[in-house]
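Checked the freezer inventory, then went back to the computational side. Two predictions to log before the end of the day. The first one is the construct we discussed on Monday; recording sequence and tokens without edits.
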Amino acid sequence: MADRTLLDTDIFSELMRAKSAPVRARAADYRQQHGRFTTSVVTVLEITKGLHKAARQDALERFVASLPAIEVMALGQDEALLAGRIYGDLERLGQRIGRADPMIAAIAITADVVLATGNENHYARIRAAGYPLRLDNWRSA
């Protein structure tokens, strides 16, 4: 069985839109093996913000209704401390990527899960800074 995987916001959004064939195929295989998807509270925040800002109340309601079937990983104290270190290191190196990605990476690292993302550029900076983040690009066929 493949490693448990945390879905980054970009991959989760693509699943909701069902437009990317590679993402749909990877998601179907993963769900068959694991029974449900795993994401983070940060992704829940980002998707909620995006749907609310776009006034897509129907899509937001569907998203909220889907949450009980999804494992949502929290940002606890350990993850917050690690995210702060990642964020600080990247700023010091001139490699700013915003606050969300260090939080998502810290959740994945702390839980020792793979992060599924199409945003390898940002996360490669975290790995280059010496953090043991495992990545899997679900956009690749």
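The second is the one RB wanted added to the comparison set:
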Amino acid sequence: MQGKKPILFKISKVPFMRSKHWKRLFIGLVLVTIAAGCAMVGFTSTLEQPNYKVIDTLPGGIEIRQYESRTFASSRVDGTGMESRRQGFRLLFNYITGENSSEEEISMTIPVATEIKDKEHVMQFFLPSEYDAASAPAPKNPNVSIGTIAPRVEAALEYTGSQSVQRAEMHAFLMKNALNDSNWQSKGDIRSMFYNPPFSIPFLRRNEVIVEVTPK
């Protein structure tokens, strides 16, 4: 008696996978799951990061960095709490997984930049270096925009642990004090940078507060 032939599961035959939207969502979830497994234990080195070189160091582990030009996708959401941050992230994640004029999938990079401005939560995904403001596909959602940061110098203070606003503010205070006693002065608002997802192991996280600086 012959045995039954094995059933070969084909994603393309699954009804919900016939939709472009569901295919994009499925692929996105797979990529996020793989990346999350690495990020949970602190491995994010495979993701592209903005290019910079350290040109000075200050007491307390503060680096003065010369950054190259960076193109970003930015979201703006009303509110200053964690739910606003999550909504901003979802808008940007949707953009890089195909909710754009080309329905193009764009690689995730690190870090994710955030700041609270005018009672809004502003978040940025830096786009891979192959893109500039002209070549990046246009967002379909009006709450997402594309922009570029010209080459500039920034001070950065790295820390681990919680990604809360309160912990970022504490390190921002430490950085401000260090800058006051240095040959550099801040210019503009301090932003938070997160290199790992919120569910990663806290002591393996890389977080930063960062601000543009100029010589005194």
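For RB: The domain at 52-215 is CATH 3.20.80.10 (Multidrug-efflux Transporter 1 Regulator Bmrr; Chain A). Confidence is low (pLDDT under 50) at residues 1-17, 36-43. Let me know if you want it refolded.
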